[in-house]
Amino acid sequence: MTPNQITLGFVFGYMAICIAIGLWAWKRTTNTHDFFMASRNLGVVITGIALFSSIMSGFGFVGGPGLVYRMGMSSFWILVTTPIGWALAFFLVAKRIRILAELRNAISLPDIAAARYSSEKVRGLVSLAILCGVVAYLATQIKAMAFVLQEIFARNEMWGHESVMFCVAISSAVLVFYCVTGGIIASVYTDLFQGIIMMLVAVLIFFTAIGEIDGGIGGMTHLILADNAESAGPWGTLGMIGCLSWLLIFTLGVVGQPHVVTKMMMSRRVEDARLTLPITLGGYTLTALLWISIGLLMRALVVSGDHAELSRADDAAAQFLQHYAHPVLAGLVFAGLFAAIMSTADGFLNIGAAALVHDLPKALGFSAPRDELFWARIATVGLALLAAICALTSPSQLVGQLGAFGWGVFASALVPVIGFGLNWRGATKKAASAAIISSLLINGGFVVYQLMGFKIAYGIAGGAIALLVSTTLFVGLSLFSKPDPLPRDIEEVMKF
Predict the structure, then answer these.
(1) Residues near 271 by beta carbon (within 8 Å), at least 6 away in sequence
(2) Which residue, of 104, 309, 419, 475, has the fewest CB within 10 Å?
């Protein structure tokens, strides 16, 4: 077998495993608690790995190296600040959200928001924010899968490799089957499998990459510095203000990521959070080695003339695996990559379907559908189709930038409402509503602004501006409003 055929075999083998996991999880998914919450029965190791895998997926494995390739050291600010965000998220919400989930039998983040603020309006707005962010993030995952498939198919001269639409269709079909059948159960157990693979291959790839150029990381940095001093500087090509905006949004932003926070509700015991955090931080740190090493190596190889300029920055990971990694290692990475993308996409589809089927009807004054599980699966298909369309029509060619936008939507809408609201008794429903509405308007406005061909000055992330505004409104309105009365059980949780 040729090296490309070995890689293709690993990818198709993984897709077959996904289908098998979906069928296995189908038998274990009998109600919406199974579909959305995995019956709140996850152990420490599964939860810890599922949490870091939720972030280090297509965004990290495809978008991350692409950001390094294009922006140099700028994206390192994401890697440095996100672990701080993990610690902050566990400190602010992990225990409280798990207790609330059990007290109120919650199966979604909007359930938690409705319980905290005693407001169906807040439930509806949280659901809307989740849906907006989910579509952007899902498009990130689908686009990442399509880019990787396109590269693999091209190397094997398979029909359809020249069409992104063909690759999106293949990726989405497997994703939909896997998600519709297995729900969150399929996601978390795939997270366990792929998280272990990701940690292993990230270390192997790191040592493979640093061996390609004399001097390792130092040699790569020297080559990049000679070509573009700004790229190899501490701020990269994004600049100081842009990097500091990423510092803000990725430090606080973890608290507002619903696919992360929701998994904190699934642990078996409240006290498991203390043991889960080190596993999450360790796994994230190890997998970040892949992000760093591939991005730097491919930029250095192009600068030195040893590799042709990439047509897309997001091709960096695929090009490295095809040309510089052992076929078996490349096959494992591609399989792990697809596992990462699909399990993360499953998590997004899951919370999006919950918002559509479970929460929005309640927010509008209706009861949930009688066969909620059936309609949750229908909603999953619809969201996947919408995200596929966005992936095909998105003007941005950088997976990492699309992922950063989705992250920003979640952060600016949910950090004040969930992260601060679960820790501050004085937070009011009026302030929560204003924070979410402002975040959606600002993020939406920046999308229109950028589609018109304009750019935000100094490379500032739009999500960071939205987060500052929404947090200011949230704090200001809460301070100058009469505190809302809290139910007794919520009051006790706030004291915890």
Answers:
(1) none
(2) 309
In degrees rounded to 5, what are phi and psi of residue 458? Answer: 65, 15
Q: Where are the domains of the chain?
A: 3-391
Q: What is the pLDDT of residue 246?
A: 86
Nearest to 287 by CA among 74, 14, 51: 51
Q: What single DSSP character describes residue 395?
A: S
C-alpha span between 421 and 414 (Å, rounded): 9
Cα 368 from chain centre:
28
* Residue at 248: amino acid letter: L
Provide CB contacts within 8 A for 95, sequence distance 6+. Answer: 270, 273, 496
Length of the chain: 496
Q: Is the pLDDT of residue 112 over 80?
A: yes
Q: Give the separation between CA 319 and CA 38, rounded to whole angstroms.
A: 37
Q: Domain 3-391, what architecture?
A: Up-down Bundle (1.20)
Q: Which residue has the tokens 């304009």?
A: 454
When mean pLDDT is compared over 4-13, 126-135, 175-184, the highest value belongs to 126-135
Question: For residues 372 and 354, which has the higher predicted lDDT (pLDDT)?
Answer: 354
Beta-carbon-side half-sphere exposure of residue 173 (alpha carbons within 13 Å): 8
